[in-house]
Amino acid sequence: MSSILEVNDVHKRIRGKEIIQDLKFSVEPGEVFGFLGPNGAGKTTTIRMMVGLAPITSGDILIDGYSIQKSYAKAIKQIGAIVENPEMYNHLTAEKNLIHFARMNGKVDQERIDELLELVKLEHVKKKKVRTFSLGMKQRLGIAQALLHRPKLLILDEPTNGLDPEGIRMVRAYLRRLAEEEGLAVLVSSHLLSEMELMCDRFAIIQDGKLISIEDQRVAGGENQPLPYQIDVGPEKLEAAVQVVKEAYPDLKIEEADQRLTIYIEKENVPALLRYVMEAGFDLYEAREDKQTLEDRFLQATSKEESS
Amino acid sequence: MIRLIQNEWMKLFWRISTWVMAAILLVGVIGVLIYSITNQPSAEQLPSEAQWKAQLEQENAEYQQALEESGSSAEFYEQRIAENEYRIQNDIPPQQATGENVWSFMSTNTALLDLLSIFVIIIAATIISSEFKSGTIKLLLVRPPSRIKILFSKYLTVLLYALGMLAFLFGVSFILGALFFGFGESSAELIYTDGEVEQRPQVLALAIDYLTGSVNFVMLATLAFAISAIFRSEAMAIAISVLLYVVGAGVTSTLAMAYDWPKFLLFANTNLNQYFTSGGPPVESMTLGFSVIVLIVYWLIFMGFAVWMFKKREISVTG
């Protein structure tokens, strides 16, 4: 499958200062891709380059194979975007706003407008001026305008910013549905990791304009890799337990940490291990997968950057 | 392109300020109407042919005397004398002897062109910067139409708006003038050039007034538009353009008394009316063709800068 969005070694320099360095990643159809980083990391700058609002210093960004720099019109056709806040024309009605943006992509298709108003549940207020809308309603209208021309790539900058939990849940549900049902590629940025974990298939972490890592949540949950399991047999018996387990599983990596035994083992072998430990006469207080959460990895990744 | 203009028109149309401007213009016309009605002399008060001829002759005697005494402003007196004589010989009564008609009423209303110009400047100055202010510029620019197309659709919308307002002013003046004053005897405008007096029908003089007035505000609107596209600041665009509109002509004509180069200044050329009336251009060597070329060059400079800046601009809306 060819990528919808390809970011190739993008650099961005403003007044001699490197804002973005060597950024490289791609987004596939049907996936929700996150763009995670603390405020000021360069997320919005990158998004602005993707949609042609800001020039790229070097490198290129391809949308469905078209360069945003060289074939702007063809590339931008495939993008629906909200950059920063969902700003609409406050003095126009919701419907007029959509007509406005539809005209910019060619013929106005009233059916499509109605369809989208229904999708984002705004058809009952379509004749109302946007001025009277709540932030959540504006955000939904923003999504509707971004989807008008059936783009292949949806770019949303901080889509849940300022929304209440219910609004956040709705946006998340929309995005997942769009990606799964329509094969849309969705790129969302956020500075909240928990957001990314809930919403995205994969996400890139950036810090100070550099790509730090790309996390694939679909792989992270895979079954056949050894995962760290922590076993608590009580502090006094820890030493003995480590000995016993090491004898039984000589090939596996075993550590002592936090007064617990940590063993890297495939999930399917966990029951046998536990049975063995208990039969060897140890009291088992707790056994759990040690999910080094993304939060840790995120902090790890970003703090590594800071100390270097 | 048509769709883009449709869009701009829709946005303009739904703004309250657009309608407030039209309303103010309407109030202005009504104000002029009330003034004209209350100051209109009744039929008996109008001087008869013998009376106004006698009056003009007396005026000429005074002018002649002033001309001999002062020596300065000779041109002014000579012109008035020549015009008055032409009126007496050809039986063309002066304005005050004919009373008001629809054309003279519309001619008075050309004063409202100043107001209209300021409105057009405001629209020109805000049509781009308001998109930046509201942040909608980002949604506007992440679409297939190129930035140049968007810029020109906005510029054309400003011109359309100006045309619309002009038609509104013209139409309202015509209707009200026709209703209240009728198509009575039309007086003719006299043009004095190099000692010759020519006669021009009032309707033609009026058309020239409106047309040349339009050139003036189109140029200023273009300037305001360019400033707003370059600096994104509507306050600056409005302030500079209105300031220039108010003082530009005065400063230019003052400079033109002493030097020759002010003829290349914008304001020496915006008032094309100077080639059609008795006043003449501020610098003698100027011709209509010269002014038109200067105006075109200014226009190209303004729009060139606007396009160049708008195209390369990095669109960031902070806050």
Compile the SSE list and pairings.
The complex is a heterodimer of chains A (308) and B (319).
Chain A: E1 5-14, E2 17-27, E3 32-36, H1 43-50, E4 58-63, E5 66-67, H2 72-77, E6 79-82, H3 94-104, H4 110-119, H5 135-147, E7 153-157, H6 165-182, E8 185-190, H7 193-199, E9 202-207, E10 210-216, H8 217-220, E11 227-232, H9 238-248, E12 254-257, E13 260-265, H10 270-279, E14 286-289, H11 294-307
Parallel strand pairs in A: 3-8, 3-9, 6-7, 7-8
Antiparallel strand pairs in A: 1-2, 1-4, 4-5, 9-10, 11-13, 11-14, 12-13
Helix pairs in contact in A: 3-4, 4-5
Chain B: H1 2-13, H2 16-38, H3 49-70, H4 74-90, H5 95-98, H6 102-109, H7 113-134, H8 136-141, H9 147-181, E1 188-193, E2 196-201, H10 202-231, H11 234-258, H12 266-270, H13 288-312
Antiparallel strand pairs in B: 1-2
Write structural notes for this entry.
Chain B: This is ABC-2 type transport system permease protein. Chain B: One of its GO terms (molecular function) is ABC-type transporter activity. Chain B: The chain crosses the membrane at residues 12-37, 111-134, 155-183, 203-231, 238-259, 288-310. Chain B: Pfam families: ABC2_membrane_2. Chain B: It comes from Marinococcus luteus. Chain A: It comes from Marinococcus luteus. The complex is a heterodimer of chains A (308) and B (319). The two termini of chain A are 37 Å apart. Chain A is an alpha/beta fold. Chain A is elongated. In chain A, the strands form three sheets. A six-stranded mixed beta sheet of chain A has the order 6-7-8-3-9-10, with helices on both faces. Chain A folds into two domains: 5-220, Rossmann fold (3-Layer(aba) Sandwich); 227-289, ACT domain (Alpha-Beta Plaits), CATH 3.30.70.260. Chain A is 36% helix and 27% strand. Chain A has helices at residues 43-50, 72-77, 94-104, 110-119, 135-147, 165-182, 193-199, 217-220, 238-248, 270-279, 294-307; strands at residues 5-14, 17-27, 32-36, 58-63, 66-67, 79-82, 153-157, 185-190, 202-207, 210-216, 227-232, 254-257, 260-265, 286-289. Chain A has eleven helices and 14 strands. In chain A, helix 3 packs across helix 4 and helix 4 (110-119) crosses helix 5. Chain B is mainly α and 319 residues long. Chain B has two domains: 2-40 and 100-312, no CATH class; 41-98. Chain B has 13 helices and two strands, in the order αααααααααββαααα. Chain B has helices at residues 2-13, 16-38, 49-70, 74-90, 95-98, 102-109, 113-134, 136-141, 147-181, 202-231, 234-258, 266-270, 288-312, and strands at residues 188-193, 196-201. Chain B has a two-stranded antiparallel sheet. In chain B, strand 1 (188-193) and strand 2 form a beta hairpin. In chain B, helix 2 packs parallel to helix 9 (147-181), helix 7 runs antiparallel to helix 11 (234-258) and helix 10 (202-231) crosses helix 11 (234-258). Chain B is globular. The mean pLDDT of chain B is 81.
